[in-house]
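Good morning,

Both structures are done.
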Amino acid sequence: MVKAYLTIDDSPSADFMGKVEFLAAKKIPAIFFCRGDLLEKRSDEAIKAIQMGFVAGSHSYLHKRHSTLSITEASAAIRKNDELLDNIYAKAGVQRKWKLFRFPYLDNGAGSFPCAPENLTAEEKSWLTKIMSDVVGSCVMPTAAQLAQKSALQEVLEELGYQGLPDITSSAYQKGFGKFDINITYCTDDWHLLTRHQATYHQTADDLIAKVKRELLLAETSSPQVILAHDYGEKEPDEAFRLLVSFMQESGVDFLSLP
């Protein structure tokens, strides 16, 4: 049986409460990584989701690649969203037991590849290249300046008390990604269904389900998977979200709660 954390980026969208109610009806726990600009628009919905038992993580205040920001700008965006989430948890009357952060586009400051490749095995490098290509469509090795940016931003996250998931044991995940942010082991590729990307990818929900069958259900690992989906508020990917999650649950995926 595949065990997995369901993580959802870019919340809260116009369809956020629809996803929350859908998951609650199916008794599926999830971590919603929330953008600061959207949190300010829909804070009441985020409060309700937290009260229903869902986890709200930080997706920074600015939904930009953090390698393109200065360290000062990136640090300010991380801190601003942290304050927003502290206030939202306080209004929800729920203790913020887990402080979880995910960088937009998984760009931890190092760009489209998360670490220096020199210390990776060929298999680990191949795995990370596949993950990053699934998330952003391309993969370029980082510069020394980008690696320094990654290190500085990890220090900010550590200072604020952010933490990684405790039981992801994949060597590529542990060696490639940062210690204080949450990354992924599987991308649904649901972003391919966005209107602005359809001219490039021409994919359907059936294509994404075929990918789940091929890459997730047949995965051979004792470590839990960390699944990436998105909360877009756009018809096709939102419908695909429900189809994909239902298919995974029906196929025996065990969705995990945080301990």
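Second structure follows.
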Amino acid sequence: MNLIYIFADQWRRDAMGIYDPLVRTPQLNAFSQKAAVFDCAISSCPLCSPARASLMTGLQPIDTGVFTNCKPGIEAQLDENAVCLSDLCKAAGYRTGYIGKWHLDRPDGSGGWDAFTPPGPRRHGFDFWYSYGTYDRHNTPHYWDTQGRRIEVHQWSTEHETDIALRFIRQEKKNNFVLFLSYNPPHSPYNLAPDTYTALYEGIHRTCHATAPAPDGRGDPIPAAYTDLDRDVIRGYYAAVTALDFNIGRVLRCLDEEGLSENTYVVISADHGDMLGDHNRIAKHIWYDGSIGIPLLIGGADVHPCHCADPVATPDQSATILGLLGISPTKQMTGTDFSPLVRSGTPVRQDSALSVAFPSSPDRIEEFRQHGLNFMDYGWRCVVSRDYKLVVDKGHFLGYPHRTYLYDRKQDPYENTPIDHPAALAQMEELLRYWMDRTGDGFLNSYAGPSSATE
């Protein structure tokens, strides 16, 4: 069996036609009819590098060493000695390839947060490499290839990376292969999608139902430059998703043409979402569903079409990938393997999933250290069940008042009004304690309980 893992940066779950007919994704809509669709997939950390590290290692974000984005002035890159999915796949005899955004290495002066990952252990067993660190000029991307040569390109990055992916598939079609295809769009800037796709959304209006303002200081405020969100953000974002859909269709057609559809799993997902104006916020790094909710569809090969409503987080994806390929996980990997559900519809139950965020700026991390505190015990933790979402927010700096938010996911899917429900709160706090114990997270060490500030 082969496996292709396609994921896009900052792609929220409902930005897909099967959830919102406003978004034009005909290829994904058709794919979903023959796929296992996970309707409550969440990012384990709604930030690029921590989510990617969690995916590649199958570990919870607290265990990867990547607690924030790989950026200058901070040590948070993926350890070259970490055991990744690619290492396990290569050891099992698969040809491995990585195309697109990596964002798991320390910036090296290539520009901004970008990073060159040299041939060797920091590439974690990938035989074929056509990648970069992080670079948001979607129409003029660059890459480093397997030999370490830098390649400059003047082409929409999603289209170019798909070209490279098709070449990889055709070259490796006689081998068992695992390919990761990592698109950067629909990540901002939002106005770079090709005109062909942008024209489809001329005059669009997205109705925002998540209207309650986010707590002060949490998440990313909408920049003043975006005076018309539909024009400045939504149109370009949805256009990028439609371009993404078209190119995923190219991958699927290639598999058909090469006779590989029956022995290739295709997994489609994202690292995290984008708020798109929900709760007067944009981008990510907050606990609302626009930020942590991600697409997850698995099709191809012997997949049993179904929908799964159980919460599924990033390490569960890792475990499921290994399960589909028949590769044993390491003892440190904690995810739930949903491959029995994907293959045969056999129920795999999971009551809850965890998403987290940590303080990330060097000055605030140093402030915690000067007070003898572990900065990793702060930030926020979010537990999602089928019925409820619990958020405990201890803040990203000293002196932040601890706050607790409980949402009824069925009655209030847009998370506008936290509820006062003692029985549900007790149930969800028990789940939070379970996750903190399971992951060795010290977050609850100084938590005073919901009475400190319930909103």
